């Protein structure tokens, strides 16, 4: 028996949405935003833990963060985007998974096939989610730039 | 387009290219057959019916799982057609993959009618009543040809090989929705497990690649609703539809219509 030389298992295979449907892209973004949020949570816990180490440690941590300059704000902007996307897309997924909404009813397939679970309602939900997230993310960016005194 | 190049990922990490003359209406399977007959008889692939019924010729074409017999080269829009074995399955040789894990998942959900009294099912001289509106609840999921495309496209399978997979869950739901079946509770327990219905994250790729519009993503969500009904609403299994007398087959006289049959009562009106 020969092993498949291109056997794409694990994380890589699940993160390859090229050629697939828009919901697959949504799946990948949901996972990616989740990983970013976990990373942020760990960093945030480490940051607040410094408070227990004394005022000096806290001041050092803050100084290190501020020394990143605009990168700190870029990082926060990415975290804000991740939180927005993960939350908004999560609502769509709860409707899908817990209530079977947006999936359509069982039908008699008629050629050319068009699965109702990826139909108009689902697409509308995916694009509406994306649009809302983009608008809020832009607003978050402007808010952060205002914090820097740029706008 | 006069010529096409078929680029096949073969065993041993070999990517072999074959040049072919393009014919109008040529499918990827036609191209593979031509390569095997005229250029390289060692090329291994599966096929049987050539018309999208047997589900044998599933393979990755331009990175997406498709049936080779139903994929016309012209629809791919490129002169180079990249063909690979289905992902998520072990390769036996060239484009032939081992579908045993997929079939094991299928059989594990008991894809057959379960009755409390099996003898009634196995030695019956009568038949179960199913109304046409009840057929509509599961017929779509009955069209599965077990080609394995959904299994290969599923990103969860790539992460969790023990996951039941879209095909198996769709088949479990097909029987859960069947009024003749009395195994609702048994199947809910099969699905309500860590590697069961909860591993689906609605990427929808299974429905996207399904060549028969079985729509496994929909079946999985509907199955999940059934599991939730048992968990939170304490839904009880219903009794299966009763046995009724066989529908009398009486050929109507020429020029007359057959007497209408009342399926609810199981007798002629």
Characterise the protein shown here.
The complex is a heterodimer of chains A (151) and B (269). Chain A is mainly alpha-helical and 151 residues long. In chain A, 70% of the residues lie in helices and 0% in strands. In chain A, helix 2 crosses helix 4 and helix 4 packs antiparallel against helix 5. Chain A is elongated and about 70 Å long. The termini of chain A are far apart. The relative contact order of chain A is 0.10. In chain B, helix 8 packs antiparallel against helix 9 and helix 9 packs across helix 11. Chain B is globular and about 65 Å long. In chain B, strand 10 and strand 11 form a beta hairpin. In chain B, the strands form 4 sheets. Chain B has a 5-stranded mixed sheet with strand order 2-1-5-3-4. In chain B, strands 6-7 form a two-stranded antiparallel sheet. Chain B has a two-stranded antiparallel sheet with strand order 8-9. With 269 residues, chain B is an alpha+beta fold. Helix content of chain B is 32%, strand content 16%. The mean pLDDT of chain B is 90. Chain B has 11 helices and 11 strands. Chain B starts with a strand and ends with a strand. Chains A and B meet through helix 1, helix 2 and helix 4 of A and strand 6, helix 7, helix 10 and helix 11 of B.
Give the topology string of chain B: H per helix, E per strand. Answer: EEHEEHEEEHHEHHHHHHHEEE
Q: What is the helical fraction of chain A, as a range of percent?
A: 55-70%
Strand fraction band of chain A?
Answer: under 5%
Give the terminus-to-terminus CA distance of chain A. Answer: 63 Å
Range of strand content of chain B: 15-25%
Which percent bin holds the helix content of chain B?
A: 25-40%
Distance between the termini of chain B: 62 Å
Principal-axis shape of chain A equals: elongated
Kindly list the characteristics that best describe this protein.
heterodimer, A: elongated, B: 269 residues, two-stranded antiparallel sheet
């Amino acid at each position: 028996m020969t092993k498949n030389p291109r056997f794409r298992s694990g994380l890589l295979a699940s993160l390859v949405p090229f050629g697939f449907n828009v919901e697959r892209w949504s799946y990948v973004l949901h996972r990616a935003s989740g990983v970013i949020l976990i990373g942020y949570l760990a960093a945030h816990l480490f940051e607040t833990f410094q408070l227990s180490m004394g005022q000096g440690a806290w001041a050092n941590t803050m100084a290190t963060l501020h020394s990143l300059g605009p990168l700190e704000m870029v990082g926060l902007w990415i975290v804000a985007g991740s939180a927005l996307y993960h939350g908004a897309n999560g609502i769509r997924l709860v409707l899908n998974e817990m209530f079977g909404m947006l999936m359509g009813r069982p039908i008699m397939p008629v050629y050319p096939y068009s699965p109702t679970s990826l139909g108009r309602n689902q697409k509308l939900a995916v694009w509406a989610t994306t649009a809302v997230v983009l608008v809020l993310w832009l607003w978050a960016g402007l808010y952060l730039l205002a914090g820097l005194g740029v706008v | 387009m006069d010529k096409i190049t078929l680029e096949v990922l073969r065993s041993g990490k070999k990517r072999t290219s074959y040049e072919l003359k393009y014919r109008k209406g040529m499918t990827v399977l036609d191209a593979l057959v031509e390569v095997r007959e005229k250029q390289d008889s060692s090329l291994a692939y599966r096929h049987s019916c050539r018309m999208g019924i047997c589900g044998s010729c599933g393979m990755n074409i331009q990175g997406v799982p498709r049936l080779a017999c139903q994929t016309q080269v012209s629809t791919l829009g490129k002169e180079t057609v990249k063909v690979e074995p289905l992902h998520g399955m072990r390769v036996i040789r060239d484009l032939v993959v081992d579908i045993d894990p997929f079939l094991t998942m299928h059989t594990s959900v008991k894809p057959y009618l379960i009755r409390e009294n099996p003898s009634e099912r196995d030695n019956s001289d009568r038949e179960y009543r199913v109304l046409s509106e009840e057929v509509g609840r599961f017929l779509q999921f009955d069209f599965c040809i077990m080609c394995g495309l959904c299994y290969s496209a599923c990103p969860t399978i790539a992460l969790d090989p023990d996951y039941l997979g879209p095909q198996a869950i769709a088949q479990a739901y097909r029987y859960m929705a069947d009024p003749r079946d009395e195994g609702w509770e048994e199947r809910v327990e099969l699905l309500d497990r860590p590697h069961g219905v909860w591993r689906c994250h609605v990427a929808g790729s299974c429905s996207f690649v399904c060549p028969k519009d079985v729509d496994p993503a929909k079946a999985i969500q509907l199955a999940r609703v059934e599991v939730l009904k048992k968990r939170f609403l304490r839904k009880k299994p219903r009794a299966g539809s009763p046995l009724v007398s066989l529908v009398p087959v009486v050929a109507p006289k020429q020029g007359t219509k057959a007497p209408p049959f009342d399926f609810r009562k199981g007798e002629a009106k």
